[in-house]
């Protein structure tokens, strides 16, 4: 199958049917958006490649791909952006809960 000529809508349809190549193409196309949304939440000295917030953003993107309805008046990029941001904020909220405070405040001994 030639994916180069597929529209975003066609790629989303294929990804929703389980096509991993279509999912990977969408992930690649939306990588800049994931980084753009995650960037304001980064701590000083972050590493873009293995940052947990970026990973949460990609989970949001995967959810957006699976849940998007073409009949919605909302564009996919807007829908995906909202889910990416929500996943990142939820991860931060979860990490900052009271039960995680000791771990988050601990300092490395080595």
Task: Please explain how this structure is put together.
- With 110 residues, this protein is an all-alpha fold.
- It has a single domain, classed as RNA polymerase sigma factor, region 2, helix turn helix motif (Rna Polymerase Sigma Factor, Chain: A), CATH 1.10.1740.10.
- The chain has 5 helices and no strands.
- The protein has helices at residues 8-16, 20-38, 52-67, 76-95, 101-105.
- Helix 1 (8-16) crosses helix 2 (20-38), helix 2 (20-38) crosses helix 3 and helix 3 (52-67) crosses helix 4.
- The radius of gyration is 17 Å and the shape is elongated.
- The mean pLDDT is 87.
Strand content: under 5%
Number of domains: 1
The mean pLDDT is 87
CATH superfamily: RNA polymerase sigma factor, region 2, helix turn helix motif
Outline of the structure:
The chain has 110 residues and is mainly alpha-helical.
Keywords:
110 residues, 5 helices, Rna Polymerase Sigma Factor, Chain: A, mainly alpha, 63% helix
